[in-house]
Amino acid sequence: MDLLIEQRYVLEAISKGAKTLDKILESTGLDNSMINNIIPELLINNLIQYKNKEYSIDLSNTSLWKNEVNKKENIKQEIRDLLCSSVDLMHKEKALHLRKVYLSELEEKLLNIELARVEKLINDIYENKKEVDNVKNMKVVYWGYSNYRDMISLKGA
Questions:
Q1: Are 42 and 118 contained in the same domain?
Q2: Does residue 3 sit in the same domain as residue 26?
Q3: 10 and 73 share a domain?
Q4: What distance in Å separates the CA atoms of residue 124 and residue 152, rounded to the nearest whole number?
Q5: pTM for the complete prediction?
Q6: Are residues 30 and 137 in contact, defined by beta-carbon separation less than 8 angstroms?
Q7: What are the Cα distances from residue 91, in Å, to 65, 81, 88?
């Protein structure tokens, strides 16, 4: 089951708890017409259910679709979509900073230490976040580095 990034976004909003259509609109910040196109698809695929004027995750079918949605290839597609959007936002705000640099062995060790600190910070924030906020207020954070040559050889494969 392939989900578009917008469908995943709405599904994530609903996964935070049952929501009315107005609450989904508020949580996602998407326009009414887009939500009205996404919701029926999620209902047809038994990802969500509608009861008492609220949409919620369809827990009776979770095991059927959760593994499919979270397959490695589907997660990779979501990351591609997010990175593509980040590139489009690159010259606005704090979207994406990318540099190709030469690193000495010492500089690479220092970078690894700093990246480990960033990862710990992000994990701590993620684990300690108790209150659920609107999905539209979430931030996408990424960090890391790769060997330039490896990235080029993967692209050509």
A1: no
A2: yes
A3: yes
A4: 34
A5: 0.78
A6: no
A7: 37, 18, 8
The residue count for the chain? 157
121 and 55 within one domain: no
Q: In the block, which residue shows the tokens 């597609």?
A: 77
**Contact partners, residue 72, CB within 8 Å, separation at least 6:** none
End-to-end Cα separation, the chain, in angstroms? 25
Q: Single out the residue in 92, 116, 143 at which a domain terminates.
A: 92
Helices (H), the chain: 5-15, 21-28, 32-44, 62-69, 72-88, 105-128, 148-156
Please provide the average confidence, as pLDDT, over all residues in the chain: 87
Give the Cα separation of 147 and 149 in Å (integer).
Answer: 5
**What is the tens place of the pLDDT at every residue in 85-126?**
888 777 776 667 788 999 999 999 999 999 999 999 999 998
